[in-house]
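Per your request, structure below.
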């Protein structure tokens, strides 16, 4: 006896008391695909109930701009969710914290800490290049028999190439960059603390899936719950590790000379107005930058490699550009970036076709407002389906094909494309955007300058479907890596 209704004039999915629209949302599809499919029936702007929570789903660019930019402040709230409350000690982080003066101050501090390493200075470049060199050396030194899951037959039986799962090495390289920035850490292969970090991170990624039943029905948290138990255990390990770093930093901090994000937070915690940031805020903010920095960047690099394996001609074009702009004698630098539109277009196309955060993080209306002229009451949740926007056939020619050229004009120069917001926009835009772009450029350019990547002989192409969790991850795959000379 469910009833289809209209919410403030918006088409609305059928709804039952307490269960909300759950029955219409049962599907084998992950949320971003399900929400995209529902546009066939309900149009591109519709409402549904997640449990008792009225939720508006935005599937087109014009309304996304209204929510994120034009009315960005009005929609800058975040909902209460059981899992993220546990992760962040009740919203003492940035991403899952509700709008307010502390959130604003934390964002500002993280921004200025990252710009210490950023564009103007060469620090980040040095750190990433060092990590990229280790990565390339590690990938090239892995012998096929170590990890090959293919048939092990490489180039006439003479094993000059390797056939490996690139994920572990990439994960360590990316982790090393972020832990340098956050707490001046660095992990060698086999470091037990690194293993600890990988394990708790994995546990959190598996349990914090957005839209989890517990997040929709907070009452379920009082029932015995395996997922929450695992999440709690992982968060405990993380917090213990980072508390140690925090205490060490407090002792060794030199005023006026921050070494990393933790120092910058400790120094700046009382400079933001009425209320100082607590130890918990400092800890949660550092933990989040660490977690976000690792998961997003490694996932994007793995997607890039997967698509390059499917499109060897694109890899060759990037390598031709690298040979011309950089050569083989030196490493690619950030200052080369503007002269390398092909690589830039590849990075954009990867983030368009597989956005790591396909429905962003839920937003909440902080006051009565409207979307597309439809009234939206204070407290309404808003999901921006960036997947639908990045695959909108009205905006993109053949949206499901990997075609970096769509970001280039006829003379091969980068064009700006609307309908493309992989980092979100407005007050809640990703704080790591410029860091992530620099890192992706440096890692990918160094990797492709030094290595040629192919599908292992007798192996298969990576599956491009993607596994939806807190980020949209590529499935495991293997690759054959040859040194370029
Ligand atoms: C938020 C994308 C890398 C830290 C976000 C959001 C997206 C995003 C879509 C949500 C925007 C919204 O809810 O409207 C990405 C992508 C990355 C990346 C595609 C890399 C390819 C990073 C890195 C860091 C970071 C490297 C930190 C070191 C954050 C934080 C937020 C955020 C703290 C929350 C901002 C807020 O709610 O105020 N990111 N991100 N991200 N990102 Fe990133
Ligand atoms: C990744 C696992 C870490 O252990 C904790 C963590 C912190 C911040 C999260 C991140 C995880 C996943 C990606 C998120 C990020 C904040 C912004 C980012 C959600 C859960 C994106 C892409 O939105």
């Amino acid at each position: 006896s469910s009833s289809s209704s209209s919410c403030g004039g918006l088409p609305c999915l059928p709804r039952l008391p307490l269960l909300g629209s759950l029955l219409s949302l049962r599907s084998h599809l992950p949320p971003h695909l399900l929400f995209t499919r529902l546009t066939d029936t309900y149009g591109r702007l519709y409402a549904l109930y997640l449990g008792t929570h009225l939720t508006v789903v935005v599937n087109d660019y014009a309304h996304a701009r209204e929510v994120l930019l034009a009315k960005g402040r009005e929609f800058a709230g975040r909902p209460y969710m059981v899992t993220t409350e546990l992760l962040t000690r009740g919203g003492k982080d940035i991403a899952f914290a509700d709008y307010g003066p502390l959130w604003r101050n934390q964002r500002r501090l993280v921004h200025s800490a990252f710009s210490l390493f950023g564009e103007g200075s060469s620090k980040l470049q040095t750190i990433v290049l060092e990590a990229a060199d280790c990565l390339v050396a590690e990938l090239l030194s892995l012998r096929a028999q170590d990890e090959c899951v293919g048939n092990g037959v490489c180039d006439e039986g003479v094993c000059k190439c390797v056939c490996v799962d690139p994920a572990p090495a990439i994960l360590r390289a990316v982790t090393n960059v972020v832990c340098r920035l956050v707490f001046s850490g660095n992990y060698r292969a086999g470091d037990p603390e690194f293993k600890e970090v990988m394990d708790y991170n994995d546990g959190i990624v598996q349990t914090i899936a957005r839209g989890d039943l517990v997040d929709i029905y907070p009452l379920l948290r009082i029932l015995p719950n395996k997922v929450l138990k695992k999440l709690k255990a992982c968060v405990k390990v993380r917090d213990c590790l980072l508390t140690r770093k925090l205490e060490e930093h407090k002792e060794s901090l030199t005023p006026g000379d921050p070494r990393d994000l933790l120092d910058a937070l400790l120094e700046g915690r009382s400079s933001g107005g009425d209320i100082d940031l607590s130890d918990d805020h400092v800890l949660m903010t550092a933990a989040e930058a660490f977690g976000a920095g690792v998961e997003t960047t490694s996932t994007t690099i793995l997607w890039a490699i997967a698509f390059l394996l499917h499109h060897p001609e694109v890899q060759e074009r990037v390598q031709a550009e690298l040979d011309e702009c950089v050569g083989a004698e030196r490493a690619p630098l950030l200052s080369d970036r503007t002269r390398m539109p092909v690589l830039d277009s590849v990075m954009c196309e990867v983030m368009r076709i597989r956005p790591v955060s396909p429905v962003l993080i839920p937003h909440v209306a902080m006051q009565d407002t409207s979307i597309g002229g439809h009234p939206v009451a204070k407290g309404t949740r808003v999901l921006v389906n960036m997947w639908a926007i990045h695959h909108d056939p009205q905006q993109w020619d053949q949206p499901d094909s990997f075609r970096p050229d769509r970001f280039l004009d006829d003379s091969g120069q980068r064009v700006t494309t609307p309908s493309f917001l992989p980092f979100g926009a407005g007050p809640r835009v990703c704080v790591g955007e410029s860091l992530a772009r620099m890192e992706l450029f440096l890692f990918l350019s160094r990797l492709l300058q030094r290595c040629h990547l192919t599908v292992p002989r007798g192996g298969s192409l990576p599956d491009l479907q993607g596994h939806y969790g807190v980020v949209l991850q590529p499935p495991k795959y293997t690759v054959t890596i040859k040194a370029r000379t």
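The first strand starts at residue 3 and ends at 7.

Regards,
D.
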